[in-house]
Amino acid sequence: MDSQKINAKKLFLMSRIALIVTAISFALRASLEPIFMHDYGLSATDIGFAFGPAFYGFTIAMIVFGPIVDLWGMKNVLYISIIAQLIGITATIFATDMWSLFFATLAIGIGNGSIEAACNPLVASIYPDNKATMLNKFHVWFPGGIVIGSLVSYILLDLLNLDWRLFVATLYIPLVIYGWLLLKEKFPQTERVTSGVSTGDMWKAIGKPLFIFMAFCMLLTASTELATQQRIGSLLANANAQPMLVLALTTGLMAIGRSFAGPVVHKLSTSGMLLFSAVISFIGLVLLSYASGAMVYAAAIVFAVGVCFFWPTMIGFVAEEIPESGALGLSIMGGLGMFSVSIILPIMGVFMDTGTEGSQTLMYMAILPAVLIVAFSGLYMKFGKKSKVAEA
C-alpha cells in the first residue's frame, strides 16, 4: 500500500470517534441500571449478569481479533465493530428483561472490543515514535465520551424526563460518523508487520515474566477504574449526590488529564505514573466510601486523578517495553482488563443485594489499588526513569 495515501490525522480522528461509541455505551449502562431495576424488576445481581457481556464480549473480540489483526487488517476488524454495535444498540432499544438486555449488551461488547483490538495497534502504527503519549490522547475519548453520554443522559432523562430509548438512539450518531470515515480512509499495516517481528516472536513475548506481571496488574487497574464507574448509580444511591453528574465530573477530569499526558508521563515515567495512580486511586475510593453531599464531588475529583492514566499507561508501557508482543499483546491487556470487570460487577451486585451499603462496597474496591501500590512499587524500583515517553 502506498504510505503517502495514509492520512494519520484522519485515521486518528476516526479512532477517537469510534471510541466515543464505546464510551457512551458505558454511560448508557450506568443510566439504565436504576431504570431496569425500578421499572422492569431486575435485581442488582441481575443487572451485574446482564451487563457482564459488555466486558467479556469485549474480551472475546480482543482475544479473537488480536492474533489475526496483523494478517486480516485493522480495517476489516472495524467493519465487524460497526455491525456488532448496530445490532447491539438496536437490540437495547427493544430490551425488556434480563436476557434481552444480556444479548444486546453482548453485541455491544463485541463491537467495542473490536474497536480496541484494531485502534490500539493502529495508533501505535501511525505514531511509532510517540506511542504512549498518543495512546493516552486516543484514550482521552473514553472518559470524554462518558462525559458526553452522562450529560446527554442527565438532560434527556432527568431534566426533560424523556423515554430512555431516545437516549440509546443517540449512539447511532457517532456510529454513522466513524463508519463513513472508515469507508473513506486507507489503513497501514501494523507496526509488528512493518518492523519484521515474526509471529513466533510475538507469541514468545506474551510469555515473558514482565508481560505476565503487567497482565495481572491490568486485572486490578481496570476493575478499580471501570467497575466503580459502571455501578456509580447504585454505589452513591444513599450519598445525597447526583450519580450521573459525579460520573461526568470524574470522566471529564480524566479526559483533561489524558489530553496533557505527554508532559506528565514524560516527567514521571510510565512506571512512576502507574505507582502515583495506584496511591491516589486508593485514597479516592476510601474518601468516596465516607463522603456525603458536596464532599462526594470532592472525593470524586481525587478518584478521577488516580484512575486517569491507568488504562492508556498500562497499554503504553507494554507497547514500549514489550513491542514485539504487537497487536496480540495490546489485545490481551485490554481483553483481560475488561474481563476482570465482568467478574467484579456481579460480585458487587451480590454485596449490594445482601444489604451491604454502597459505601462499604467502595471500601472493598479500595483493596484493589492497595495491592497495586505494592506491585507498582516494585515496577518503579526496576524501571524508574527508564520508561520515559516523548512529549507530543
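The record above closes out task 2.4. Task 2.5 opens with a second protein, given below.
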Amino acid sequence: MKSLFAAAAVSLGLAGCASTGVEQYRAEQPALDLKTYLNGTLDAWGMFQGRSGEVQKRFHVVIDAKWTGDTGVLDEKFKWSDGTDTRRVWTLVKQPDGTFRGTADDVVGEAIGEVAGNALRWRYVLALPVDGKTYHVDFDDWMYLMDDKVMMNRSYMSKWGFNLGEVTLTFLKR
C-alpha cells in the first residue's frame, strides 16, 4: 500500500512539473502582437463550464481597446445568458522584457502575460462574486491567434489547485 501511495505521489508531482509553457509556441504563426490585435473593437462569445463539463453560463462581450505607447485600456462590456450585464476595464502595460502586466477592479494584484508566437498565457487571481460572497480564484488563460481577425481563448479556473471549471471564448476583431 505504501508503494502505491508513493507512486501516486510521484506521478502527481511529475504532472505538476510538466506544465506547458508559452515558449513552445514561439514558432507558431501568425505571430500575436497584442498592441495590434487588441486595438479597436472586438466581439467575443463564450461560455463557462463547471467541473463536470456542463455549460452553466454563456455570454457575449464587446471590447473597446485603445493603446497609448505601451499602455492599453480594454473596456469589456459583458451580456450574460441570465440577463445580467457586467463590465471590466483592464489596463495593460508592456514591460521592457516583452511581458505584460495588467490590472482591473476585480483582479487581485496584477495579471502577468507572456506572449510567444501566436500564443498568450495570461495568469491572474479574480475576485469572483457568488451568491453574496466573493471568492479569489486563479485563472490560467491561454489565447491563440488564428488569423488577423480570430483569436481562441481557453481559461482554466481553480482554487487551491482544484479545478473549478473552464471558460471558452472566441474573439472576432471588427
